[in-house]
Amino acid sequence: MSMLRNFFLSLSLLLLSNGAVFADSTDPLPSWNDSQSKQSIMAFVESVTRSDSSDFVPVAERIATFDNDGNLWAEQPMYFQLFFAIDRVKALAEEHPEWRTEEPFASLLAGKLEAALAGGLESVLKIVMASHAGMTTEEFEVIVSEWLETARHPVTKRPYTEMVYQPMLELLDYLRANDFKTFIVSGGGIEFMRPWTERVYGIPPEQVVGSSIKTEFEMEDGRPVLRRLAEIDFIDDKEGKPVGIHSHIGRRPIFASGNSDGDLQMLQYTAAGDGPRMMLYLHHTDAEREWAYDRESSIGKLDKGLDVAAEKGWTVIDMAQDWSTVFPAEVK
Amino acid sequence: MSMLRNFFLSLSLLLLSNGAVFADSTDPLPSWNDSQSKQSIMAFVESVTRSDSSDFVPVAERIATFDNDGNLWAEQPMYFQLFFAIDRVKALAEEHPEWRTEEPFASLLAGKLEAALAGGLESVLKIVMASHAGMTTEEFEVIVSEWLETARHPVTKRPYTEMVYQPMLELLDYLRANDFKTFIVSGGGIEFMRPWTERVYGIPPEQVVGSSIKTEFEMEDGRPVLRRLAEIDFIDDKEGKPVGIHSHIGRRPIFASGNSDGDLQMLQYTAAGDGPRMMLYLHHTDAEREWAYDRESSIGKLDKGLDVAAEKGWTVIDMAQDWSTVFPAEVK
């Protein structure tokens, strides 16, 4: 039985691993132009998965981490979670008369977004967290899911979950077909992402790392619930990303993908391990199909990261040049 | 090609899933006597995995959480991590002259364990954390691994990683063969467990939840490292267990296994979900092959949990009655 099982298993694995075996006949990254970026990615994946390769990496160590905002889905004209926060603040404003005079809520409610966001990511997260607390974790999941069903992007009028990048969906699939475990490591709220990452990206909740507020176990009418407290627990950005990776994954990634200076430490941490490594920066160069921004942007600023990438020889994806398709809606 | 692939795949899956298909011919839990506990476990697993069952649970939601100390490995005559801490304190004592007068180190170094441990788990964790900080995460992993190679249990003289429970190893395998994802959720240190849980339990680092100290990203000679700080980050015990589960897994388990009052909230949280649930308590009743302790024990106290289990009809494993084998060394 054992020999028979092993024979069929081997045969199936061979037939299943079309990413490697049938690379010639099926392009696993059809929305990527045949650029240096695509070639680098495929050469890396082949080198760590071919059992006769000197760079072979065992399956358990094939950890790939992806930033979310501006990397798996868009982040312009501002972080999508902020649109959620604004809608939520508006919905709750009647219950919170104090917000009319208290910043940054006063500015938010007055429609003065720039004033409300002036304090950068820390202040942004403060707004987000403050508008996200008080309910149980289950209630919050429902609130996020319902918002995603009805909310539309202000420019494209599409649901936010359709503002994801088709080439990155293909990259996630390609890595998983080659036995990588794919994780999100985002500055965004962990509980804002988990309700939809499995459906949209194929990434289950236990593989999502993000910023968090504290939760507390309590009994509500004899039933245990987790209450979301208005207190920041962890900010998963910049130096926080390697800390979040270590806390949640406990292993150094061999592949990391980001698009801003907030991802630099994650890429540095990934680069510092032994053996083969791949560090990817997505450069937003496509003003026509998406947005073009980098060193001067207040959202998704990519400045120091571009310099380090050039110095270290990391792969920089030029969105305009390297992607034949940006959003799934463009796929024929 | 696709049909051929599907045929072999189906055949392989059939041959691989011996837990379900060959349940009659192969006992997946050979170290369990044919008791009510074993029958309950197998009936539960069958009910959630049979596709025609009204209790069927999709693979993604088959989350099982296990306490570690006293549940997957022994915890007597005291928590094994404490033996590690004592050995570590002794090894570092020369560098820390202040420990000679500072409690609980003074008591530890004087061999007065009871005095050092008088403060309960919080104080125990404080001792552990204080003796575990200062180095990088990579250095700590080496320290733990080297200790496990040489340290021996004071009573059995076996390596600590052989003080694991054979029936629980079988249960972990059985659940995974039925597409459960198995997690550790322990009051012990997350970084104390991760270096060996994959080898010993088949549980990878990213599926280990535990207590933690803070870490900080820093550059050491131009290389990014994570430094372990002498500051408690999270205590994964009692009310902390559902919080840790939510933070790391983001999904409510459908199966939870513990052995002490420290696991009660995890079991309550698991029980409170919709659909089929299994809550397991391991009752240490075997003074001959292991240890017998429950309501009065200072380590692994099981008092309120026994009452709740009886009231709610949870499964209580009677170690002496239900297990034909306790430790792997007893397997013929």
Automatic annotation (TrEMBL), chains A, B:
InterPro entries found in the cross-reference section: HAD-like_SerB, HAD-like_sf, HAD_sf
Q: Which GO terms describe its molecular function?
A: hydrolase activity
Pfam families named in the record:
HAD (PF12710)
Query: Which SUPFAM superfamilies does UniProt cross-reference here?
Result: HAD-like
- The residue range of the signal peptide is 1-23
Gene3D superfamilies attached to this UniProt entry:
HAD superfamily/HAD-like
* EC identifiers of the protein: 3.1.3.-
The alphabetical list of record keywords is:
Hydrolase, Signal
Q: What is this protein called in UniProt?
A: HAD family hydrolase
Organism lineage: Bacteria, Pseudomonadati, Pseudomonadota, Gammaproteobacteria, Cellvibrionales
